[in-house]
Amino acid sequence: MSSNSSSALRPAPLHLLLAFASGGLLTLMVDFNGLVGLYGGAMYSSWVAHGTGTVAALIFLALLRFGPHSSTATDKPRAPLWAYLGGVSGALTVTLTSTTVNTPLALSGTLALGLAGQVLFSLAADRWGLFGLPKRIPRLKDFAALALIFAGSMIIIFGQG
């Protein structure tokens, strides 16, 4: 493999920083949702999170109307119907995490098991080509990473002495 093709496979430092920052924001979001869930219940927490997101999206869309308009906007393909189901899984995620954060799992256990679930689902999505992804057979190192994440989750949850 040439040096050009191997460097193309490496993420840029900015991408790593952004991924790390998004993980930090996810942790804050789960913590805030758990706090709202503690006082108002898991469903209320989900309503608050999605209500806030809706208001932010409407403001963002209003600001976009004042920007330059693209004449090729009608040339874009339509989103598949399953793309609109993100809100359903998001509402379920907020409800479940708001509940589990306020149990003995706490924030770290909730996030650790959530990460394990995300990796497991991504391996399944790769394997069966879900959501239009190219099919890819998971390799041994993928399962080793999943096992390490799961083992770390168990240490976090049960190793609190």
TrEMBL record:
- The answer on whether this UniProt entry bears the keyword Transmembrane helix reads yes
Coiled-coil annotation reads none
Q: Name one Pfam family in it.
A: DMT_YdcZ
Q: Which residues cross the membrane?
A: 12-35, 47-67, 79-99, 105-123, 143-160
Record's keyword terms, sorted: Membrane, Transmembrane, Transmembrane helix
The highest taxon in the source lineage is Bacteria
Which InterPro entries does the record match to this protein?
YdcZ (IPR006750)
Q: Name one GO cellular component term.
A: plasma membrane
Instruction: Identify the PANTHER family for this entry.
Output: INNER MEMBRANE PROTEIN YDCZ
Q: Write the protein's name.
A: Integral membrane protein
